Amino acid sequence: MNRNTIKVALIGNPNVGKTSVFNELTGLNQQVGNYPGITVEKKVGFAKLSEYTKATILDLPGTYSLNASSMDESVVIELLMNKNDKDFPDVAVVVSEVENLKRNLLLFTQIKDLEIPTILVINMADRMIPKGISLDIPFLEKELKTKIALVSSRKKIGIDNLKQLIINYKELSTEPCLNASSIDPEYFNSLRRAFPNQLLYKLWLVITQDVNFANLHRKKIEENSFAKPKADLKRLQQKETIKRYQFINDTLKVGYKVDKTTATDFRERLDRVLTHKIFGYVIFFGILMLIFQSIFDWSSIPMDFIDETFAVLSSYAKTHLPAGILTDLISEGIIPGLGGIIIFIPQIAFLFLFISVLEESGYMSRVVFLMDKIMRKFGLSGKSVVPLISGTACAIPAIMAARNIENWKERLITILVTPFTTCSARLPVYAILISLIIPDKRVFGLFNMQGLTLMTLYLLGFGMAIFSAYILNKILKIKSHSYFVVEMPGYKIPMFKNVAINVVEKTKSFVFGAGKIILALSVILWFLGSHGPDKTFHDAENIIETQLQNKTISGEKDDLVASYKLENSYIGIIGKSIEPVIRPLGYDWKIGIAVVSSFAAREVFVGTLATIYSVGSHSDEETTIKNRMAAEVHPITGKKIFNVATGVSLLLFYAFAMQCISTLAITKKETNSWKWPMIQLVFMSGFAYTVSLIAYQLLK
Amino acid sequence: MAITVAQLQRGQKGTILDFNIEEIPLKLLEMGCLPGNEVTLLQVAPFGDPLYITVNDSHVAIRLETAKEISIEIIDVP
Amino acid sequence: MMSFQEIIVYLLLGFAVAFLWKKFFGKKKKDKDCGDGDCGCH
Q1: Confidence class of residue A67 from pLDDT cuts 50, 70 and 90?
Q2: CA gap A450, A442 in Å, rounded
Q3: Which of A1, A118, A140, C9 has the fewest Cβ atoms within 10 angstroms?
Q4: Boundaries of each FeoB-type G domain copy (chain A) (predicted)?
């Protein structure tokens, strides 16, 4: 590593504007990845501090203290305790906020105990005047044994000063600002004697935390009977916290003055409205309607554009590239596969736009507060609201959003039931089936029946999510404490830059995360659909040629060949072999093929049917596919295939079945086990099968 | 019987006396919910749970079951 | 004799299968190595 590159770690409580400081320091020069083996986001940025000095800046997950209660938080501890980690910082920058300095300093004193050079950033300095706050910086710097940078990331003040402090990090004191071991001198003295070469506070963290890297070491400590019962340890931790607050209070008594007369109670007045038992819900549902409006209405404009662009691109590739199997793969597998991912970008971007505005403004905490009691009746948490809303765009980011639910059982149930919510991949399937089987009429002269059906399907998905949560809550025997603590931050106007970066990052991680899986599957599915085992497949053109000459069939030759090939391809064979299983649901082998291939992503269903009914290669017009599907009759009975019974059965199947391999992958990642995605698959698809079976048998 | 945070009226203040350490999340302690500190009930969510309190300048929402574990002494407002 | 296009297609196919295999069945990377040397936790 370059000698003039300083490694900086940004640490701080949630809601202190740490990310804005990060964005100000690095601009757009940042990357998001994952920590090895876990799905916690790792944000690294690069900053030019001066002519000669550069810095890599690691934005660590927000944490209230070094006592981890979530996966995100343990990342912070593991990094700060492991000097050999390649990301171990030369200097720690603790970001605090001027209005919550007292609480923010708790983490600061803990970091200081690790004897890492530390800078204290006091952010939101622009709020000092309206809030009547004055600080004695020299006094605070002396007591806290650090350098302080007063920053306003909103007004872009103080960033240069911070950069200067980082450059001069070697001048920082590494002395702790208080002696935490005095809470139990006897215990800590014997600990010191047993491990003379170690930092006492590190030992203490190893004893109290269940952090990964320390397994070996923990055993050693336990052998030496330093382990204590959990309650005793917690009592000691309480003592430690009190001790730290004593020090902080004494320091702030001199260095931090608030003139209460200038302070306003804007927050409390707004809280009274936003958490009101009637207005609170009215406002929340108003915002929900706005989100749905954006996802389903506004996004349709860019989505149609993307759809057309990829169709054009695909046919362009087919006609302009040298003919051959690779060209087929590109035009029939890769381009449509990419299109299938990119088409979701508008919806996902809108969704994250709203969610990050709501989170930045502080409103999301009020929603959690408002919904917690209701959600808990179903074994969920108030914090499950975000995943369930996000699920209407895509289950993948939604499941990841469940991460900040601290109760494992509530988090697990949220993860398991989120895929029931109607994600946007179901929409194309619903759209074509509804237009086939539901008449375009109005009931009571007011509501469109097709629209009503779509709404029913949405409610059905959401209802099923809630209902299965309720069942899971009864079945799952996981004992876990509630530990529900939600900070209600002050209201802020969201900063454009933060929201924009967040939307871009989240969308990117969807495209490159789920996108890779969908793309890989599209390649495999294309292969299975365009290759077949026996002669009939290879002789497709000749066979169709003969049949055309004999007038046993009619139509465009190319379409018929494509259709015939698909029928005799590997996927066609799979579709046919599962026909006995899906027959009771009212599906024939053609629908079977579509069901199998849409296991990668639901929306593939429509495209596959288009190919099977040999309309795919020439027109992507929805009406054409629809007409072809409507005309499809059963070869023996002569009845229509897509009648009401089959249509309803299919709609229900897609409403409930776990037809999404990316969701299974993310569930496996988030629960760190094969058990839960398998349960999801068996339960959801089993339920879908049963419901569709009943529906078909009743309606036929 | 001791009064707990769960029994506070909206706008009422109390001083924290003690709590059942095993039932209180450590995070809450770290936010400053410690014996001797003042706690104010700001809002009660619809259906009576969770509670929105302020303690040690932190604004937090906790569930009723947690609030029941924190015993307090009510501060009379003159 | 396979054509140039076929070779690439089979390579891509193999790559896709390997990617998915790794994604679903691949072993997770080991947690941060802490076996030897002073990494601050011994």
Answers
A1: confident
A2: 9
A3: A1
A4: 5-172
Put simply, whether B34 touches A (Cβ < 8 Å) is: yes
Architecture per CATH, A5-171: 3-Layer(aba) Sandwich (3.40)
> Is the pLDDT confidence value at A212 over 50?
no
Range 9-38 of C in CB contact (< 8 A) with A: 9, 12-13, 15-17, 19-20, 23-24, 28-32, 34, 37-38
- Give the model's confidence band at A638: pLDDT under 50 very low, under 70 low, under 90 confident, else very high: confident
In this complex, which of C17, C19, C42 lies closest to A217 when CB atoms are compared?
C42
Please report the ipTM that was assigned to this predicted complex: 0.94
Instruction: Tell me phi and psi for residue A187, to 5 degrees.
Output: -60, -45
* Crossing angle for the helix pair A675-699 and A644-656, to the nearest 10 degrees: 160
- pLDDT tier for residue A405 given thresholds of 50, 70 and 90: confident
Is the CB of B61 less than 8 angstroms away from the CB of A231?
no
Main-chain dihedrals φ then ψ at residue A34, nearest 5 degrees: -120, 155
Alpha-carbon span A88 to A80, nearest angstrom: 6
Which domains can be identified in chain B, with CATH numbers? Answer: 3-75 (2.30.30.90)
Please say whether the beta carbons of A121 and A22 come within 8 A.
no
Residue with tokens 């709404």, as numbered in its chain: A455
Alpha-carbon distance A205 to A208, whole Å?
A: 5
Taking only the tens place, the pLDDT of each residue in B32-43 is 888 888 999 998
Each residue of A14-48: b (16+ CB within 10 Å) or e? ebbbbbbbbbbbbeeebebeebeebbbbbbbbebe
